[in-house]
Design goal:
The complex is a heterodimer.
Chain A: H1 5-33, H2 35-38, E1 42-43, E2 46-47, H3 48-78
Antiparallel strand pairs in A: 1-2
Chain B: H1 3-24, H2 30-35, H3 42-53, H4 56-69, H5 74-98, H6 103-110, H7 114-147, H8 151-201, H9 206-209, H10 220-230, H11 243-257, H12 261-264, H13 273-309, H14 319-326, E1 330-332, E2 352-354, H15 358-366, H16 371-409, H17 415-438, H18 444-468, H19 474-495, H20 497-500, H21 520-537, H22 543-553
Antiparallel strand pairs in B: 1-2
């Protein structure tokens, strides 16, 4: 196990890259760029593209932040930079 | 009991609570005044951030705006929430580790430059003042509509309340008041939304009600699409803005949110780096409750409105209609003289104009909810406006007392002197903000939306590059901020020249189909590009600055030795 702060930072950047791709897909992707085709699919009374733009993207944002919180808390412990 | 009496009681109780909290949480040091002593628990900070963030515009105007623009309104929903992801990922934890009081503090130290600090102070003041004028106006409107006080008296009352808790308590007083204000505003927003959702769809959760069926078995959204199209409007669930503009506005709002000083500074108040991350998550939870409800309210109120007014006789309109007519926020002009309201897209035939801002305030009346619900909405609107105003006042006062006075003009000032200066600056700023509310310069409404564009084009790249690019130096950051800001300001002035300078047509209509609201994103890219290029052809930042960057990237441990 390494305690090198550069490794810690690299791992952080990896997490960020993955989570930001999801962030982009949920909003700009499904909510805007692909909203037209997705509107052909229905989720109850919602057209799917419209649902992502006005509801789904927001739920995903919340989840993303808490996933990041968890990942980083673990990483902080692993690299012994967790603040007591 | 009448609506007015209920309003006096509910607003009175909420104000008494705010003042009580202010007295209990007086600030006694600059640390408490600027960042509440750095001891705010993450959930509480999340709530305070949510109240700080959700302004009169979020509470009063947003649902109405969406109601009239349908899918196009999604830019506000995604834009004003997606920014919190960026805050949690790219900004908040690192600035918390940096551990100072203000954004100009960070810009000034990271770029080892008094100039950069001053540029940041000017941006912070400009953004905050344009924003606060709108809040005070919102306070005045709520008072005048619900208590039938003159708008100006309403503004003065609002000023007095903010004065008490912002000047006495600083960030500490503001934080705990904002927690109370969040509770008031979310309750006030949800109660009518739940009522209406049950009435229209039988589902008590508005987020689900929006996608449910009506009594006649058709889906609500399908019904609304049909109603809209019948009257010549675009279908509610599909937009009419160009896609590139929707992308640009959403991005500009997201990035602007992550660059707004009064939001960022809230993350300086939590005890630890990981609390800054968690607290951004909680903030978004509390914001999302309102932001996922608002589009449902928009759908309910639009359907209700069309069914109440379209092709109905003017003489049969309910009481709220004439009340808002008196306030000149609804206008009816019987063009064909048949006494029936034609509400359609075509401006030659359309006879009804409705101000978007009244939809949330009028919603309980349109749906015939009880008087106490209407009064609650008034208290909620006030809580939203006052909490945002207080957060902005703190940014203004700390920019003056800390960044200008302590860091630039008189570094030898004592802590007591600085605290006194902070209180005086907050006091003066309250009065100034109130004056802007009483005598709103015509351009305020035009400029408020652009506070985001300017924050996106100035602060965001300077902060993020300052953390993620160790090689970024003073020359790059200053050149980037100035070009990004310059481009955005010039573009906005040109695109809004009709409203700002009275030219007949805007000098340019759009920039590659991107409107003034979204132009900040182009400014942001220009800023980042210029910063990166200039920084690579000028000397790297000094060693101790590179060390500072290493230091803020880790919560503790490795960087501990060089903590300032």
């Amino acid at each position: 196990m390494s305690k090198d702060p550069h490794q810690y930072w690299k791992k952080n950047l990896q997490y960020l890259a993955i989570l930001l791709v999801i962030w982009f897909l949920a909003s700009f992707g499904f909510g805007i760029l692909l909203a037209g085709p997705l509107n052909g699919i229905r989720l109850g009374g919602f057209k799917l593209g419209f649902w992502f733009a006005q509801q789904g993207s927001i739920y995903i944002f919340v989840i993303l932040i808490f996933v990041y919180v968890r990942l980083m808390n673990k990483l902080d412990h692993k690299y012994e930079v967790f603040e007591e | 009991m009448t609506v007015q009496l209920w309003t006096i009681i509910i607003v009175g109780i909420s104000f008494a609570i705010y003042i009580g909290i202010a007295i209990w949480s007086r600030a006694s040091s600059t640390n408490e005044f600027y960042v509440a002593g750095g001891g705010v628990p993450p959930i509480m900070n999340g709530m305070a951030t949510a109240a700080d963030w959700m302004s009169a515009a979020s509470f009063i105007s947003m649902a109405g705006l969406i109601s009239f623009s349908g899918y196009d309104g999604s830019v506000y929903l995604m834009g004003w929430t997606g920014g919190y992801v960026l805050l949690a990922f790219l900004v908040a934890p690192y600035l918390r580790k940096f551990g100072k009081f203000t954004i100009p503090d960070f810009i000034g130290e990271r770029y080892y430059s008094q100039q950069a600090r001053i540029v940041a102070v000017i941006c912070a003041l400009f953004v905050s003042f344009t924003y606060i004028a709108g809040q005070m106006r919102g306070v005045g409107i709520v008072f005048s509509r619900f208590l039938e006080l003159p708008v100006n008296l309403g503004v003065i009352l609002g000023m007095a309340i903010v004065f008490i808790y912002a000047v006495l308590g600083g960030m500490k007083g503001i934080t705990y008041t904002q927690v109370a204000q969040y509770v008031v505003l979310i309750f006030a927003f949800m109660v009518p939304a739940i009522f209406i959702s049950i009435m229209m769809t039988g589902n008590p959760i508005p987020q689900l009600g929006m996608g449910s069926t009506l009594a006649d078995g058709t889906y609500l959204l399908d019904k609304l699409d049909g109603l809209n199209e019948e009257l010549g409007f675009a279908a509610y669930t599909s937009g009419s803005k160009p896609m590139i503009d929707v992308l640009a506005i959403t991005a500009a709002l997201m990035i602007g949110t992550a660059g707004l000083p009064h939001v960022i500074v809230r993350f300086f108040t939590v005890p630890k780096v990981r609390d800054a991350r968690t607290s951004a998550g909680w903030a978004l939870v509390f914001i999302a409750i309102l932001y996922t409800t608002a589009p449902s309210v928009a759908v309910f109120v639009r359907t209700n409105l069309i069914e109440t007014v379209s092709n109905k006789s003017y003489a049969d309109m309910p009481l709220w209609f004439s009340k808002w007519e008196d306030a000149e926020l609804i206008k009816y002009e019987d063009k064909n003289g048949d006494g029936i309201i034609q509400y359609v897209k075509d401006p030659k035939v359309n006879e009804l104009t409705i101000d978007k801002d009244i939809m949330v305030l009028a919603n309980p009346e349109i749906a015939r909810l009880p008087a106490w619900v209407i009064a609650l909405v008034a208290a909620g609107g006030l809580a939203a406006a006052l909490s945002t105003a207080a957060g902005l006042l703190l940014v203004i006062s700390s920019a003056i007392s800390h960044d200008l006075l302590k860091k630039a003009i008189r570094p030898d000032i004592s802590e007591k002197g600085e605290l006194l200066a902070a209180r005086i600056a907050a006091g003066v700023a309250v009065v100034f903000a109130g004056l802007l509310g009483i005598y709103p310069p015509g351009f305020v409404a035009q400029v408020v939306a652009f506070a985001f564009g300017l924050a996106a084009a100035s602060f965001f790249p300077a902060i993020v590059l300052g953390i993620f690019d160790r090689r970024m130096n003073r020359q790059g950051a200053v050149a980037g901020m100035l070009t990004g800001l310059g481009f955005t300001i010039v573009m906005i002035l040109l695109m809004r020249s009709d409203k700002l300078f009275g030219t007949e047509e805007p000098i340019i209509k759009d920039f590659m189909k991107i409107s003034a609201e979204g132009i900040g994103i182009i400014g942001m890219f220009i800023n980042a590009a210029v910063s990166l290029i200039i920084s690579r052809i000028t000397p790297p930042p000094p060693d101790e600055i590179q060390q500072l960057v290493e230091d803020i990237r880790v919560p503790s441990g490795a960087g501990e030795a060089v903590r300032h």
